[in-house]
Amino acid sequence: MEPGTYYQCQRCANCCRWPGEVPVSDEELQRIADYLEMPLYDFVAKHTDLRLNRTGLTLKEKPNGECEFLDGNECTINPVKPIQCAGFPNEWNFKGWRESCEAIPLPEKPD
Ligand code: SF4
């Protein structure tokens, strides 16, 4: 990643389709449950699994590995999505991420 470059998401939803954990904090769980107008306990029971390292919860995946909250190319919890989703690719990414992510590099973050 070039220093000073901001990558503007193009909503291709490829990152929502990669299998893998999406850790959610207690605050994020509550925010998403409130957004979906579900009691916290029901949301946790229906939409989360224990992380493999047993340190917390992760959002459930569909059988094909994509996020359970992905509908077509739309995130159905976009206004309250977890920080892991909101932070990619500018806050964190991984080797080879550009091969799958369609974000456009800009000299700075737009207002
Ligand atoms: S892969 Fe990149 S461009 Fe596509 S939705 Fe994720 S962050 Fe946005």
How is this structure best described in words?
The chain has 111 residues and is an alpha+beta fold. It has one domain. Helices cover 24% and strands 16% of the residues. The protein is built from four helices and seven strands, in the order βαβααββββαβ. It has helices spanning 14-17, 26-35, 40-47, 83-87, and strands at 6-8, 23-24, 48-50, 57-59, 70-71, 74-75, 104-106. The strands form three sheets. It has a three-stranded antiparallel sheet. Helix 2 (26-35) crosses helix 3. The model has no long low-confidence stretch (mean pLDDT 95). The protein binds iron/sulfur cluster. Iron/sulfur cluster (SF4) binds at residues 9-15, 88-89, 101-103.
Number of domains: 1
Order of strands in the sheet with most strands: 2-4-3
The helical percent reads 10-25%
- State the shape: globular
SSE pattern: EHEHHEEEEHE
Number of helices: 4
Structural class assignment: alpha+beta
DSSP strand count: 7
Major sheet: 3 strands, antiparallel
Rg from alpha-carbon coordinates: 15 Å
Low-pLDDT residue spans: none
Strand content: 15-25%
Ligand inventory = iron/sulfur cluster
Mean pLDDT across every amino acid position: 95
Question: How far do the termini sit from each other?
Answer: 21 Å
